[in-house]
């Protein structure tokens, strides 16, 4: 459980550092150049590894019983979450209409997983990453209240986003099945 919590803490710290300590981050950029981004990328990689290992190695402690219908809603929400994660880098028309699609994708992912996982490790992992997404949105909106909308997008971009979303969702479902967590009822 400690590894899981350390991984979550590092995730939060690495992502919020630029917003909460902009002068310190600017100093790092001046001293290290592009190496500063490498440091944060390494910290994020370590955080993900720690979260995965901490989650896998944690003792299963029940907190609540997930609803039986949660699995179906989880799959729908996960399809939406994957799409939202892709919107931020797409040439879809939806990109111009949304301010924080990737963070909304993380929040949707988090909620979807809490629908089907009622153990303590899941509540910590998915719950705290969902809270992180909300905190990031608030912090970004306070720092940058005026939004510059992305210009562009096309029907082709919408179709491409939809197809990529379906493929990525299928790959995620296959990986979950391979790991022993089949997302679809057998």
Description:
This protein is mainly α. The protein has two domains: about 60 residues; about 130 residues, no CATH class. α4 runs antiparallel to α5 and α5 runs antiparallel to α6. The radius of gyration is 18 Å and the shape is globular. The two termini are about 30 Å apart. The model has no long low-confidence stretch (mean pLDDT about 90).
Order of helices and strands: HHHHHHH
Helix percent reads over 70%
Give the count of structural domains.
2
Task: Summarize the biggest pleated sheet.
Answer: none
Choose one word for the global shape.
globular
Can you count the beta strands? 0
Q: If you compute it from the alpha carbons, what radius of gyration comes out, rounded to the nearest whole angstrom?
A: 18 Å
Distance from N terminus to C terminus (CA atoms, Å) equals 31 Å
Summed up, the helix count is 7
Uncertain segments are none
* Oligomer category: single chain
Q: Tell me the fraction of residues in β-strands, as a range.
A: under 5%
Mean residue pLDDT: 91
* Helix-and-strand structural type: mainly alpha
In short:
Its main location: membrane. The protein is mostly helical and 186 residues long.
Sum up the structure in keywords.
mainly alpha; 2 domains; 186 residues; 7 helices; globular; 73% helix
What layout of secondary structure does this protein have?
Layout (H helix, E strand, L loop, with lengths): L1 H19 L1 H11 L2 H23 L12 H18 L13 H16 L3 H24 L11 H24 L8
Helix pairs in contact: 1-2, 1-3, 1-6, 4-5, 4-7, 5-6
């Amino acid at each position: 459980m400690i590894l899981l919590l350390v991984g979550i803490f590092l995730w939060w710290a690495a992502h919020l550092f630029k917003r909460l300590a902009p002068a310190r981050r600017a100093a790092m950029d001046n001293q290290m150049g592009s190496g500063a981004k490498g440091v944060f990328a390494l910290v994020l990689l370590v955080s993900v590894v720690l979260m995965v290992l901490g989650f896998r190695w944690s003792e299963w402690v029940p907190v609540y019983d997930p609803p039986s219908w949660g699995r179906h809603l989880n799959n729908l929400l996960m399809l939406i979450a994957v799409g939202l994660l892709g919107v931020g880098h797409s040439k879809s028309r939806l990109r111009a209409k949304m301010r924080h699609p990737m963070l909304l994708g993380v929040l949707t992912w988090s909620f979807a997983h809490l629908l089907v996982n009622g153990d303590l490790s899941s509540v910590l992992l998915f719950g705290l990453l969902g809270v992180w997404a909300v905190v990031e949105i608030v912090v970004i909106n306070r720092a940058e209240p005026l939004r510059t909308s992305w210009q562009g997008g096309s029907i082709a971009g919408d179709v491409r986003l939809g197809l990529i979303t379906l493929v990525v969702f299928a790959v995620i479902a296959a990986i979950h099945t391979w790991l022993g967590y089949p997302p679809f009822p057998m």
